[in-house]
Amino acid sequence: MAFKIFSHHRTFRWMRQLHLWIGAWGAIAALLFGITGLVLNHRIGDNAWPQGKTEPVRKEQIVAPAEVRTSPEAMSTWLRQTRGLDADMIRKPRPGGGEGGRPDGPQKWNFSGGSARNSWSAEYVVGGENVDVKWSTSSPLAVFNKLHKGIGGTWWRVLSDSYAIAMILLALTGLWMWARGRGVKEMVMSVFALAALATGSAFVLAFL
Question: What average pLDDT does the structure give for the chain?
Answer without folding.
Answer: 88
